[in-house]
User: Which sequence fits this backbone?
């Protein structure tokens, strides 16, 4: 992203240099535009450190080679002339240190190189983003699977416990009904008949809860 913007800013700034010779000097308004775009270009290049983790060693080496190339030196020489302090209304840069054709060729070389690097930066950034997205998807799938397995285990344990509780309650109900409907009436009848009886305490067979 920084490199693509740098290439665009460089193309904008260098596009007006030809007017310095064709018009006998660069008018003040074009000089202001040139310096603004050149300054923004320098600022973008300074930000390249923030993207260095997204570029490989080869790309970084290419970037440094571009900054130290003869083409970059040609543009710097032209900027030195165009950036010289001038009166507000005076034109400047009529006597560029290089021919306009050589300047434009150097600018095109740098712009093309920066564009290619910027494209590679975006490609590598997209690849890294896609890998991160894929890793997040894999993590989500693993976590989702673990949660489903855990939910299945919890559900199975819950079903087992509920079934055990239902069976215990059913046995307790059966025992209670048997004692209320059979054992207790039989004991009462034996007492009425004078035989006496002792009703045994109920035995809890399914735990102490």
Assistant:
């Amino acid at each position: 992203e920084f490199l693509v913007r740098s290439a665009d800013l460089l193309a904008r700034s260098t596009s007006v240099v030809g007017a310095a010779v064709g018009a006998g000097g660069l008018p003040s308004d074009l000089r202001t535009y040139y310096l603004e775009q050149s300054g923004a270009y320098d600022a973008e290049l300074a930000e390249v450190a923030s993207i260095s983790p997204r570029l490989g060693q080869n790309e970084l080496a290419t970037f440094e080679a571009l900054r130290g190339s003869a083409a970059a030196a040609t543009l710097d020489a032209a900027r030195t002339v165009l950036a010289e302090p001038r009166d507000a209304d005076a034109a400047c840069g009529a006597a560029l240190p290089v021919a306009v054709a050589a300047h434009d060729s150097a600018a095109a070389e740098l712009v093309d190189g920066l564009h290619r690097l910027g494209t590679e930066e975006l490609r590598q950034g997209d690849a890294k983003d896609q890998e991160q997205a894929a890793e997040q998807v894999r993590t989500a799938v693993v976590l989702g699977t673990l949660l489903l397995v855990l939910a299945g285990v919890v559900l199975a344990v819950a079903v087992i416990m509920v079934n055990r509780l239902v069976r215990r309650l059913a046995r307790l109900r059966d025992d209670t009904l048997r004692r209320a409907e059979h054992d207790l009436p039989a004991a009462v009848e034996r007492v009425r008949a004078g035989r006496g009886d002792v009703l045994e305490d109920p035995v809890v067979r399914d735990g102490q809860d």
Remarks:
- Helices lie at 2-14, 18-22, 28-46, 57-67, 70-82, 100-192.
